[in-house]
Amino acid sequence: MKDKVFYAIVCAIAFFSMASATPVFASNLNWQPYLVTEDVLFPSLILSTNNLDFDKILDRPQREDYLGDSAGLYGIKIKNPANDTKIFVTITIDGLSEASSYEGVLPVAGQEYTVVPSMRYKADALWKIKQPYPTTIIYSVTLNDAPPQKLTKKLSVRSVNDVPFGFMQNGKHYDTSLLFAAFVNENSPVIENILQDALEHNAVQSFNGYSGDRQQVLRQVFAIWNSLQRHGVQYSNIVTPSGLSKNIYSQHVRLPDESYDNSQANCVDGSVLIASALYKIGMCPVLVMRPGHMFLGVYNDRESCERRTLQNITFIETTAVGAVRLNALQKKWKFKTDDGYLSSVSYASLTDASNHATRQFNQMVPALNTKQKGYYLLDITQIRNAGIIPISSVISTEREVDTIVQEPHYPTPKQIIKGAGGSMIVQY
Question: pTM for this one?
Answer without folding.
Answer: 0.83
